[in-house]
Structures are given as structure tokens and as C-alpha cells.
Write a structure and sequence with these properties.
7 helices, mainly alpha, single chain
Length: 137
């Protein structure tokens, strides 16, 4: 894992925040906004399987919503939008957790710090690290 991966995940978290805010601001009562809500949720990273399972619908229905051909009733639109926001929040939390883990792994030293003197005499360096691990254990 590199610092670039951490930066990418931080950007993902920021983008998810922006997508969530955008969906929250769209008026669900306007039918033309419904296609934007669906398209935005898909762009944010929600997968086909998530849509179908979580919304109990077939993929062709989601595609018709996204194309603006059809839309659920007003009450269902509000409930579905809220569920999409919840799904995006869960995706954001998962991405933030991954970001924390990557930060922890990068911050953690996989190898003990070795001085120049130890590099010149690798045998003593090996004994020093063994003594530290035995005294710690």
C-alpha cells in the first residue's frame, strides 16, 4: 500500500460526501430529478447487485428510472432516496475504515529500524533484535 492509495481513498470519501449532499438537495417530488438521483447514486459507486437487492427490483427498472422513462410513486421515491443515501453512507464508512487501516499499515514499521553501525555488522544487528524480542516476550 502506498501513500497514493491513501490519497485515492481520501478523494473517494470526499466524493461520496459530495454525492450524498447532491442527492439530499434534489427535490424528489420533481420527476426530472429522479433520473439524476439514480444516475448520481450509480456514479457514486453503488453496484447493480446493490440496487436490485436493496430496492427489491429488477435491473431493467433501475435503467428505466435512470433514463427518465419511469419513476416510482412519490412516497416510494422518498423512501428509495433515503435508502440510497443510507447505502452511500455505508459505502463512505467502509471507505473511511479502509483509509484508517491503510494509514495504520503505512505508519507501522514492518521491519525494525537499523542503524548504520548495525548495517556494517549484520550479525550483531540480528542478535540485538533477537534480544529485544526475547526480553519483550
Amino acid at each position: 500500500m502506498t501513500k497514493q492509495m491513501i490519497q485515492i481513498n481520501q478523494i473517494r470519501v470526499n466524493l461520496l460526501d459530495a454525492y450524498i449532499k447532491y442527492i439530499e438537495e434534489l427535490e424528489v417530488d420533481k420527476l426530472e430529478n429522479w433520473a439524476l438521483i439514480i444516475r448520481t447514486a450509480r456514479e457514486a459507486g453503488l453496484k447493480k447487485q446493490c440496487f436490485c437487492e436493496e430496492l427489491s427490483c429488477v435491473w431493467s427498472t433501475v435503467l428505466r428510472w435512470e433514463a427518465g422513462e419511469t419513476a416510482p410513486g412519490a412516497f416510494a421515491r422518498r423512501a428509495i432516496r433515503q435508502r440510497l443515501i443510507t447505502m452511500l453512507l455505508e459505502l463512505r464508512a467502509k471507505t473511511k475504515l479502509q483509509l484508517k487501516l491503510e494509514n495504520a499499515l503505512i505508519g507501522k514499521r514492518l521491519y525494525p529500524r537499523v542503524s548504520r553501525a548495525q548495517l556494517s555488522n549484520p550479525i550483531s544487528a540480528h542478535h540485538d533484535t533477537e534480544e529485544k524480542s526475547t526480553s519483550a516476550g
